[in-house]
């Protein structure tokens, strides 16, 4: 059900995306009306959250069924149910194909009445609320002049980032995301020398109701989008292997790789930003994973010019890794919910050269017979299928491989790839299911189509 406007983009970006989704290969396969319909469905579904929460379970520490039971007990303790019927409706379902995924339905959009007292939050904070989070104080940009702790307030998301921090009201472009109880006075948020921390508004009537996982079973459950979990399984890590995660922060996929291989072997995680490396190490420690070695390093420079180079850290000698994950920096246009993106077309199109530099390093670092998985969380051809076509042309040693599991759609037309090649790619395209997949459909059937926009390609180095 559509209750929000389509994602707000700069006009030049909208036109660029339209040209992608109505390219000549697509129009040769489907009529223009169908292609335009898919494009407009994409813009609509991007502004809405998926109809479920995906949780990756730490099955290296406990069985899926035991984690499912513990999660249910914790959620029953921490949720404030408005009725016994609502409590009984809590569902935690295993994914039918992915052995370490649990799915929880999201209830929404719900009929929530707007109140007189209004708090305005940034767009990123508003998106987090739609996925079950409370409002943390740094996300608040405006509040009533005399707001005090205990006040019941309506929360609005500032779509265009135009609300002045500390304002007492805002009439710009915004959307309602639910009601909550203020945990802080206004002065505690805006009138302090240090940035405010902690929960500013505790959501009690969110427009989309899903559990808050703040502090719940941190070693056993990890919030992760379904396609991001699929990537780890497609990579197929095996015990004893040496694996490289090239752009690893914040470490969700890194930790998943280590867990899938039973923490036996070595998972090298690289990222350019030092505090993100600290986050990866913290996650690894929390999940009791000892095989992860995290380094602050630019992956485009990760290949040593000395073939005999044998240092533990980067740069590495060529052909040092059994498998490589290149979850590349990208324009992120597949993320949901995302009601507004203020990037220029130049920014949206700036990632392809970096992705190709990373590809060059990845192929050099991969052993013969090794597996390379390339993934993004965006919907453009330039960063997905066109990169695959370029890689196959640039590196004759690479061949596309089947993916397991393959629960998304095949690759998108428009990059000159053959039908057989497109069939081997995996593109998660929520727009394809937007009208057909009613939120009343059984959750496991709904989950594979109602995802973020995402792309996966798997290569073998011959």
Element layout with pairings:
Elements lengths: L10 H11 L2 H6 L2 H15 L5 E6 L6 H15 L5 H5 L4 E2 L6 E5 L12 E5 H8 L4 E2 L3 E3 L9 E7 L15 E9 L3 H5 L8 E8 L14 E3 L2 H10 L5 E5 L6 H9 L4 E7 L2 H13 L5 E5 L24 E7 L17 H4 L3 H14 E11 L8 H10 L3 E3 L18 H6 L1 E3 L14 H5 L6 E8 L1
Helix pairs in contact: 8-9
Give keywords:
462 residues, alpha/beta, Archaeosine Trna-guanine Transglycosylase, Chain: A, domain 4, Rossmann fold, 3 domains, eight-stranded mixed beta sheet, 15 helices, 18 strands, globular
How much of the residues is beta strand, in percent? 15-25%
For this structure, what is the CATH homologous superfamily of the largest domain? Vaccinia Virus protein VP39
Radius of gyration: 23 Å
Number of strands: 18
Helix vs. strand class: alpha/beta
Task: Supply the CATH class of the largest domain.
Answer: Alpha Beta
**Could you say how many structural domains there are in total?**
3
Instruction: Give the integer mean of the pLDDT values.
Output: 93
Give the CATH topology of the largest domain. Answer: Rossmann fold
Give a short account of the largest sheet: 8 strands, mixed
Q: Name the shape in a single word.
A: globular
Given as residue ranges, the uncertain stretches (5+ residues, pLDDT < 50) are none
Portion of residues in helices? 25-40%
- SS field, number of helical segments: 15
Assigned CATH architecture of the largest domain? 3-Layer(aba) Sandwich
Question: How far is the first residue's CA from the last residue's CA?
Answer: 47 Å
């Amino acid at each position: 059900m559509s209750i929000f406007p389509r994602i707000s983009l700069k006009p030049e970006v909208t036109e660029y995306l339209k040209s992608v989704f109505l390219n000549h290969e697509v129009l040769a396969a489907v009529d223009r009306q169908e292609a335009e319909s898919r494009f407009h469905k994409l813009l609509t579904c991007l502004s809405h959250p998926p109809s479920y929460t995906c949780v990756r379970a730490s099955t290296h520490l406990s069985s899926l069924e035991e984690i499912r039971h513990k999660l249910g007990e914790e959620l029953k303790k921490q949720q404030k149910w408005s009725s016994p019927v609502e409590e009984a409706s809590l569902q935690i379902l295993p994914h039918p194909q992915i052995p370490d995924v649990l799915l929880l339905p999201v209830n929404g959009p719900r009929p929530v009445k707007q109140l007189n007292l209004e708090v305005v939050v940034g767009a990123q904070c508003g998106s987090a609320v739609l996925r079950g989070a409370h409002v943390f104080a740094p996300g608040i940009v405006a509040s009533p002049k005399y707001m005090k702790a205990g006040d019941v307030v309506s929360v609005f998301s500032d779509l265009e980032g135009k609300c002045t921090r500390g304002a007492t009201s805002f009439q710009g472009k915004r959307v309602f995301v639910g009601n909550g109880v203020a945990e802080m006075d206004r002065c505690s948020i805006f009138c302090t020398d240090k940035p405010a921390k902690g929960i500013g508004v505790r959501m009690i009537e969110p427009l989309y109701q899903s559990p808050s996982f703040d502090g719940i079973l941190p070693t056993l459950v990890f919030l992760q989008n379904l396609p991001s979990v699929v990537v780890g399984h497609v990579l197929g890590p095996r015990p004893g292997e040496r694996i490289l995660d090239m752009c690893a922060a914040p470490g969700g996929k890194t930790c998943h790789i280590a867990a899938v291989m039973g923490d036996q072997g070595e998972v090298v995680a690289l990222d350019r930003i030092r505090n993100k490396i600290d986050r990866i190490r913290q996650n690894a420690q929390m999940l009791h994973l000892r095989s992860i070695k995290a380094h602050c390093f630019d992956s485009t420079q990760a290949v040593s010019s000395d073939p005999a180079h044998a240092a533990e850290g980067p740069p590495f000698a060529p052909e040092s890794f059994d498998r490589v994950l290149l979850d590349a920096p990208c324009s992120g246009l597949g993320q949901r919910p995302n009601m507004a993106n203020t990037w220029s077309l130049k920014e949206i199109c700036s990632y392809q050269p970096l992705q190709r530099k990373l590809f060059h390093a990845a192929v050099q670092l991969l052993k013969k017979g090794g597996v390379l998985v390339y993934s993004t969380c965006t919907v453009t051809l330039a960063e997905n299928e066109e990169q695959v076509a370029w890689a196959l042309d640039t590196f004759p040693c690479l061949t596309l491989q089947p993916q397991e599991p393959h629960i998304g759609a095949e690759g998108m037309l428009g990059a000159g790839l053959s039908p057989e090649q497109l069939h081997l790619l995996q593109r998660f395209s929520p727009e394809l299911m937007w009208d057909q997949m009613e939120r009343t459909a059984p959750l496991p059937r709904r989950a594979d189509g109602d995802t973020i926009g995402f792309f996966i390609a798997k290569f073998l180095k011959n």
